[in-house]
Amino acid sequence: MSLYWLLALGKSYDTSTPVSRNATIYCSTEILSLDWECKSDRLLLIGTSDGCIKAWNVDAKRVVCDLNTTEAFPSVLDIKCSPVEPIFVSAAASGGAGSNYIDNLGFASLTVWNMKTWKAMTVLPLGEDPPAITSLCFNHNGKILAASAVDGMIHMFDMSAGLQITGWPAHDSSISSILFGPDETSIFSLGSDGKFCDHFHATSRNSMYMNFISSHSNNIHALEQLRSIKDKASSSAQFCSL
Fold first, then answer.
1. Is the pLDDT reported for residue 240 higher than 60?
2. Which of 134, 224, 124, 144 is nearest to 170 (CA)?
3. What CATH architecture does domain 33-232 belong to?
4. What is the C-alpha end-to-end distance of the chain, expressed in Å?
């Protein structure tokens, strides 16, 4: 099997970072998703195409935990750690192979994992035969999880109750990535159709509208700029009161 490699520990370190802080992680299968544990930045979570979720410890420079999704959902398309609680959510898909990648992703499964016991806690409800989830994002206090799908839908979950609280069609095609805005009252989405949109939360939990932003070819860079702005912003606003 081909060996896929990843330069994993180049995360936002400046040029004065000692070389010993860098490492190369080798994996025998395709890596589909990555996320850092928010509290310590000492654990890197890695999702693969064969249903594995690996926890790489920066200090030990080795995998300290190996988890597996169910056989029915082998492709771990995204992983997001809560900014507050010791939990993370994995978005796994039933498919993933084939020439037309998006059309072959199959159905979705969203699993909440406990990072103390390294066991699955619950599966978030998505309904019957839900299209694959492509991107996840927590709000600033970890109470709300946003999930985007290949059918252009955005789903919102109350993490305290483990329930979906709303959802709406955001794009005419698959959504590549989503991110909460700097004020935590809006969500930005990047579609495979090249559209970069913002979705503002109005006066009620279910009231949303979309404002088309741009369709230029540098949307990936635009989303990275948005992420940088979000990291620098300080805001006390919440997406909604729970």
1. no
2. 134
3. 7 Propeller (2.130)
4. 48
